Amino acid sequence: MIILSIPYINNDYVIQKEGEYPNYWKEFRLDYSKDFQSFPQNIINEKTILTIRSIKKGGKYEIEITEKIEYYKKIISDKNCLCDLEINRVTDQDISSIPRSNLILSYHNFSEIIDFTKLKEIVKRSNSLPSKFLKIAVNIHKYSDLIKLSQIISESKKPVIFAGMGKLGKISRILFRHLGADATFIGLTGNPTADGQLTLEETDFFSLNSISKKTQIGGIIGGEQVIYSLGIKYYNDLFIKEKLDAVYLPFATDDIHDLWNWINNADIDFYGFSITMPFKKILGAKKQLSAMNLFLPKTNEMLNTDLIAFQETVEILKIKKADSILIIGSGATAEIALKAFQIFDNITISARNEIFGKKLAKENNREFIQLKSLTNRKYDLIINCTPIGTKIEDLIKMFNLELPQKVIELPYIQKNTLLINRCIENEIDHIDGKRFWILQAKIQQQKFIMATQL
């Protein structure tokens, strides 16, 4: 059950939105208006939820509990809709005045850290009270909290509407069925009624209506940049085409150990994960690999498809063994590039992090050169393994390099980087970040499809 939450801005607005989205359950947030009793009753039906939230719990205007209950009772008798009461602000007597089949008891906590002891008490009280649903809305900042939430949701004797907020609000709402909940809220672009709501566009993009508890979960693990990954559309389109019950999601984190703990302990069928910066080396170390960018939980397999993609670029660009090659970067991708080009004779490394760059050069018996010393140097091939270019930087101009004969540009953005534009303008053979991504994605695609069938 997916509920579209609509703020009561004015009558024309809610009537328009009701007409635009006839197939959704709808929550109307009446607390967005001082004159909530003027809400147009002709758009209320059995798939309507009326909510008058208190200011402390995110409401815009404060309405007395008695006034709220009297209004609910009147509307329910005419329209048989659902109404929301905050479980911590009402007495048992207040609750008993609303028919069980029309009542949602809701619990909201905007604290940064979830009080699981309190949440268990809320579920216990809800189990003893007459209502159709229990709604739980909490901030989520740790993936491991999803395991505890799932356990607590399972203790509810009535269906749970789950609304995650905070850093992991969106991802937790996508996974609401995997957490054991029966419903979640989504919002309108530009007019959300809560933090963490998915928009209608995001709901459609991830095919939220098609995700069940049996849907296999995977995605891309990395920093905040993962939300821009080409893989999100690429793999989800693939799964639809192949008629596979799987979804590819962005798993952003700054605590890889927290995310890894969740993956290894959650009661979810994970098919696989792409791994990107800054976790390729950290996770690769778990299997004594220099770096990895693919993890398949079902077989506990870790691979690096970047290595295969780099090897393919040698053929595509017809790179010669004697070509002078400049690798910019000192991270996991630069290390993989060195491995792919290990039989090539003339390789130089340069990096902003000189300590790591020099270490990488020494370990691979290669020359290291400072970025500031690149002025007027010319190479046959430049391989950019850094984010330089994603913020409209001009790599050639930054380091006063001469234009090379060939380029492998790892970063990708919606438009071409300035380095790729230079390649196009000067007819330089190149592989941009999108094309490189597709080269390595072909291998991941095969592995993901096989994993979903295990």
Provide a descriptive summary of the structure in words.
The two termini are 29 Å apart. The chain contains 16 helices and 20 strands. The protein has three domains: 2-211, Alpha-Beta Barrel (TIM Barrel), CATH 3.20.20; 218-304, Leucine Dehydrogenase, chain A, domain 1 (Rossmann fold, 3-Layer(aba) Sandwich); 308-438, NAD(P)-binding Rossmann-like Domain (Rossmann fold), CATH 3.40.50. The radius of gyration is 27 Å and the shape is elongated. The strands form three sheets. The protein has a nine-stranded parallel beta sheet with strand order 7-6-5-4-3-2-1-8-9. Strands 17-16-15-18-19-20 form a six-stranded parallel beta sheet, sandwiched between helices. The protein is an alpha/beta fold. α4 (116-127) packs parallel to α5 (144-153), α11 crosses α12 (332-340) and α11 (305-316) packs across α16 (433-452).
The rounded distance between the terminal residues' Cα atoms is 29 Å
Radius of gyration computed on alpha carbons? 27 Å
- How big a fraction of the residues is strand? 15-25%
Secondary structure category: alpha/beta
Helix content: 25-40%
How many strands?
A: 20
Summarize the main sheet. Answer: 9 strands, parallel
Q: How many structural domains can be distinguished in the coordinates?
A: 3
Number of H/I helices: 16
CATH architecture of the largest domain: Alpha-Beta Barrel
Overall, the morphology is elongated
Unreliable spans = none
Average pLDDT works out at 92
Q: Quote the CATH topology of the largest domain.
A: TIM Barrel
For the largest sheet, list the strands in their spatial order: 7-6-5-4-3-2-1-8-9
What is the highest CATH level, the class of the largest domain? Answer: Alpha Beta
CATH superfamily of the largest domain: Aldolase class I
